[in-house]
Amino acid sequence: MDPERLNTLADHKDPSVAMSGQVGSQVKMAVGASWLIANVRTMRSGEDGTVRAAIDFLGEGERLQSGGMRNFRRGVTRYPIPGSAVHPVTTDDLRSVFAAADDAHVEIGTVYPTDDIRGALYVDPMLSKHFAILGSTGTGKSTSVALILHRISQLSPEGHIVMIDPHGEYSAAFKGCGELFNVDNLQLPYWLMNFEEHCEVLLTTDGAERQRDADILAKCLLAARMKTKAAEQFGKVTVDSPIPYLLTDLNAILVNEMGKLDRAGDTTPFQRLKTKLDELKADPRYAFMFSGMMVSDTMGSFIAKLFRLPANGKPISIVDVSGVPSDITSVVVSVLARMVFDYAIWSRTEAQRPILLVCEEAHRYVPKDENAAGQSVRRILERIAKEGRKYGVSLGLITQRPSDLAEGVLSQCGTIISMRLNNDRDQACVRAAMPEGARGFLDAIPALRNRECIVCGEGVAIPIRVRFDDLEPEKRPASSDPSFAALWRETGGEADIIQRTIKRWRGHGR
Length: 510
Hints:
The protein is α/β, with parallel strands linked by helices.
């Protein structure tokens, strides 16, 4: 490229032409009756006074008599020969590149560097092949997630979206168009857990002892499930069947088995299980799951309420797990995710109702570390990432540490929306997960402003850099950073604040 020509274009009134030829912008070349559009990745000065740039081809469009372009599509059929002239790309060219097709799509913002071209996400390819939203903390990630979910629920007011929210920040954003669940109204029955989840909650040992405890638990749990009336009508009941049973039955069976042992036998494993069971029943923090009121068969109404079947214009369920005791958070998330997947599998012969499961802070539940606690939640989310598409289950992962996420899960996400990432390891992780043509865009990731992102993959025609729209204050999540300078000027009423806080602290929020 000619540096003088680049300098004169820099003051052009069309922002796209002014940017054209610089790193991260687009250029075009004529080949036959087509325009080829390419993205500039790097630049250096050549020995003969020219500027040498490395480019990635994005796609091609029909070349019109007027010099304009139409019918842009991804991929290249003919490449230019060395010496072909390189032209700047105008806003009109970009408009035909980014023009949303007639497929269902949601507009999320403005394409950089233009002022008026809208960036669109195609809903079907984005959801059917899963998506990930990545960005360091403080880059506007929560607001952007809220924006995308609001736009999707405006497009599909009868949709089915389940959002797992570990910090309780999204309830504020979806008061109007969602159903909010927290520890007080979730009422998640303990008998919905499968055997693996029961083990995570009830077993406290490791190694060979754990295996022995698990065998005892399996035998007693199956006996407890078989005792109920519901079990009689289903014939074949396994230890995983979601059939209601009484905690008192499980307790009685444990005591009974313990009494059967001849005196030489060791009663410690039974004692351990019984102690843990009594502890769960007595602790008020676990009441949302292990209360004596959970015995009746509420599975139908629980699924209808949680998966918004029917949605009645409120397509989103926000499940706020911030009040759940930390040692069983991963089990609760596992039960919810597994319910989504199992429902999809067992309802295959019915009219399909696809479900989107959005998981905030995903690196907690699917960590890179193979030996981390909470294996059941990791297994089910990995399974949804691999097989969910066949059954109409979509997964949305939101994380600020993509490098801590299990690699297999991120690579299954067809659409990646990346905001600014400050850490080198995180950037390398995203680079590995992105398709080849988008690599040039990735160098811009550390330089993105707040509320800007790069979108690539199935949900967009070509990789784009988008500035998100502003979201109305009442639709924003409660995740804004406190202003230390302003709040540290305020004073007064500290004694009352402390009293009220301690009361809530001791009463676990009550």
